[in-house]
């Protein structure tokens, strides 16, 4: 069987638990740090699946409280939308 | 065919209008109003795209439009989330390789 550390944490950018743990061990101890080093959270879904998992991994490894690690400033759009929804006439001309 | 006709909670499947979609060139009958992913799973297709880094197959994962694992090229537009996009008559759906390309018939 495959090593359990080869499980994907960031499915979009295909970043494994091993890569994220190694980054944390090297001293990257915020979700943003891990993102910039491993690309976890930079894929299509923009960290919607993995950012909370990464925050928990950092918290478990470093003892930093989880509330200090979770991303506070979410930017719009909260979920991916097509540009046509911003179109004023609502006709959806692409 | 993996379509569920007798659901233990939802009951029997009601008759609906059918639409014809094309999946990698093959015509497939889908139920009007269902999402692309549902139509593909009903035909037994589980492999929706191939990842760019490790070339691994991916299919439906979250099913609610968040994880983007189920994206395919639809009518020449890459990265369409098939779990939240409804089928339309004559829709051309293609298995996507990596980030995909714009245009029909050039992804696989």
Key structural traits:
heterodimer, A: 94 residues, mainly alpha, Arc Repressor Mutant, subunit A, two-stranded antiparallel sheet, elongated, B: mainly beta, Ubiquitin-like (UB roll), 5-stranded mixed β-sheet, 3-stranded mixed β-sheet, 10 strands
Average pLDDT rating of chain B: 93
CATH architectural label of chain A: Orthogonal Bundle
Q: From the 3D structure, determine the CATH topology of chain B.
A: Ubiquitin-like (UB roll)
CATH topology of chain A: Arc Repressor Mutant, subunit A
Helix-strand string of chain B: EEEEHEEEEEE
Assign the CATH class of chain B.
Alpha Beta
Order of helices and strands of chain A: EEHHHH
Structural class of chain A: mainly alpha
Q: How many β strands of chain B by DSSP?
A: 10
Distance between the termini of chain B: 24 Å
Could you name the CATH homologous superfamily of chain B?
Answer: 2Fe-2S iron-sulphur cluster binding domain, sarcosine oxidase, alpha subunit, N-terminal domain
Ends of chain A: how far apart?
A: 48 Å
The global form of chain B is globular
CATH evolutionary superfamily of chain A: BFD-like [2Fe-2S]-binding domain
Number of helical elements of chain B? 1
Task: Report the helical percentage of chain B.
Answer: under 10%
